[in-house]
Predict the structure.
Amino acid sequence: MSEPVEALSRGAGLAAWRQIADALEGEIAAGRLAQGAQLPTEAVLAARFGVNRHTVRRALAALAERGLVRASQGRGTFVEAAPLAYPIGRRTRFSEIVTGAGREPWGDLISHREIAAGPERGAMLVLPEEAPLLELITVHRADGIPLSTARTWLPLPRFAGFAGFAAAYGASGSITRALAACGVPDYTRASTRIRARPADPAEAARLEIAPGRVVMVVSSVNVDGAGTPVQANRAVFAADRVELMVAP
């Protein structure tokens, strides 16, 4: 290995990975690594500090655990952007909120299946426990950065008609447009509950955050113009990427 560009302090009682993490955190705080900027590769950082890539990887993991950077599979590591203000009210629309912030919204359909409502979902949608539901797992992005992942439940057979809700969502990337395609041109929020907890491994992977990072869980029910529940939703937001605002 050639001489490092920036030698670390050896034998000072501070691990090499910690010194690297502190150096990069200082550059983020000073704006030399701007919000949304891609960090140099592990190989470049290893050469810069005169360490192996495992040491660099541990430093980056520490920064990710503190919510300063995110690792995107196959793309690299990026400085986290400023949190997006996300108002929650009677007409909460992900696409409108993200577009209004000057970012590009999109939703990815991860999977869908038919399940029984069960007691909790049945109560949310005012349906018998044995009623069939369509369950979707989705990831919602702003400029390609995942802000939330959600489980969405809709009553069947109502949302199996037309092109089918799952197909409409997969084509449009929008809950609002998928509902409209299935005969619900407008809807309003009937209830919202918010709590915080650590992300589970699957959520962390979909959100590209370190396992165990704090997430905000927003459980909601939407109703159509007649007041009939059409959608129950449990959205898990990366807490460092959004600022939830409850509208009066």
Summary: The longest helix spans residues 16-30. Residues 16-79 form a domain with the Arc Repressor Mutant, subunit A fold (CATH 1.10.10.10).
